[in-house]
UniProtKB/TrEMBL annotation:
The keyword rRNA-binding does not apply. Keywords: Membrane, Transmembrane, Transmembrane helix. The chain crosses the membrane at residues 79-103, 138-156, 162-187, 199-219, 239-258, 270-289, 295-312, 319-346. It comes from the Bacteria. The keyword S-adenosyl-L-methionine does not apply. It holds the Pfam family EpsG. It comes from Candidatus Burkholderia pumila. This is EpsG family protein.
């Protein structure tokens, strides 16, 4: 667990210095994004889903496109398969993980610069809340989220057709990316309480009718129907946890805070709609945390941009400490969770395997234990 805490201290330490100075320090920015990239990019047999992605990569590498058709693999999206095929012709899986991490890190850096905020703050908050479950787990979804971030960069720059095209590209890596189309389409509209209530009511009806239709087999012919059925069978929860309720309350407070703001530019509207969209999934589809967890990946980035800008501009150490404590509690909740057994201990490819030759041999065992514990929790 020590490496995770060391990264937390390093990122938040860099952000604290930036906040105290009240300005963005380039050396600290480079340090933060480098640490953000390297920690995920050179992990070895650490995190959720690594075994599935590794075996899929090797199958494509050895047998071409047909290698990924095995029943042991889920139905991966075409652009992800193409990327794996191209990369696998030259490099191995470890190099692929590093490539993904570098690409995601560069996009995150570009997103921060579009907002003119501290990368230290964005990296520190992102690391504490969603990094483990995204950058160190769902490889293709992390790539898809990078294209979604690029789409909103172009949308803020009023280049709509490029933004729409990038959402389609993102869907080529993970179909769930299409769920962000409502935010893309609504970003020019002002979010009001009346509109929010109307969307919640309509969304509740649409989501529950859709879930009924899926369970009844009405969507069996659609390309994503198999995944929807899988989520209904394996990913639904019977009751909402206290932690989830607390997180909903926290997001409600955040939404009230931003709605009170007089700012109404594209960035602030994106913040408002993103937080509301996450709350929408948390309230309407609470029984499917796998859905709102994916929305959370994007929303946390947007929230982190706003918080990073606020804390550097205001130089408020008390506010910064409050956010840091909440973030630390969130990170620790994940690390001590039995379902995160595949993350602890952290193993580095270059340090543990190449330099020290001291890699543990229980990586696959912990991977399957994590899957079993997640299933036990759902049922």
């Amino acid at each position: 667990m020590t490496p995770y805490l060391a990264v937390f201290i390093a990122l938040w330490g860099a952000f604290f210095i930036s906040s105290v100075l009240g300005e963005i320090e380039i050396p600290l920015e480079v340090f933060a994004i480098t640490l953000f990239v390297v920690f995920a990019g050179q992990r070895f047999e650490t995190g959720n889903d690594w075994l599935t992605y590794r075996d899929h990569f090797i199958a494509i590498q050895q047998f071409g496109f047909s290698g990924g058709d095995s029943p042991q693999f889920p139905a991966f999206e075409p652009l992800y398969i193409l990327t794996v095929w191209l990369f696998g012709r030259v490099f191995d899986f470890q190099a692929f993980l590093l490539f993904v991490s570098v690409f995601n890190g560069l996009v995150l850096y570009r997103f921060a610069k579009t907002w003119n905020v501290s990368v230290c703050g964005l990296a520190a908050i992102n690391y504490s809340w969603t990094y483990l479950a995204t950058q160190m787990a769902t490889t293709r979804y992390s790539l898809a989220m990078s294209f979604i971030l690029l789409a909103f960069i172009f949308l803020i720059q009023h280049r709509k057709f490029v933004a729409y095209a990038l959402v389609i590209v993102a869907a080529g890596f993970h179909f769930f990316s299409l769920a962000f189309l409502p935010v893309v389409l609504l970003i020019n509209r002002k979010l009001t309480v009346r509109l929010a209530a109307s969307v919640l009511i309509a969304g509740f009806l649409i989501v529950h009718v859709t879930l009924f239709a899926v369970s009844s087999g009405w969507f069996n012919g659609l390309p994503f129907s198999e995944k929807l059925v899988f989520y209904l069978d394996e990913a639904t929860v019977k009751q909402i946890s206290a932690g989830s309720v607390g997180y909903i309350v926290l997001n409600l407070a955040f939404l009230v805070w931003v709605l009170c703001s007089q700012e109404d530019d594209d960035k602030m509207r994106l913040v408002k709609w993103s937080v509301f969209y996450l709350l929408f999934f948390q309230i309407v589809a609470w029984m499917l945390p796998v859905f709102w967890n994916r929305i959370q990946v994007f929303t946390v980035v947007v929230q982190a941009c706003l918080l990073s800008r606020y804390m550097v501009e205001r130089c408020d150490p008390v506010f910064l400490l409050t956010i840091a404590v909440l973030s630390f509690a969130t990170l620790m909740k994940l690390l001590v969770d039995p379902a995160f057994i595949s993350y602890v201990p952290y193993q580095s490819y270059w340090v543990n395997k190449v330099m020290m030759n001291a890699v543990r041999d229980d990586g696959e065992s912990r991977f399957y234990q994590a899957i079993d514990r997640n299933r036990e929790r759902a049922h």
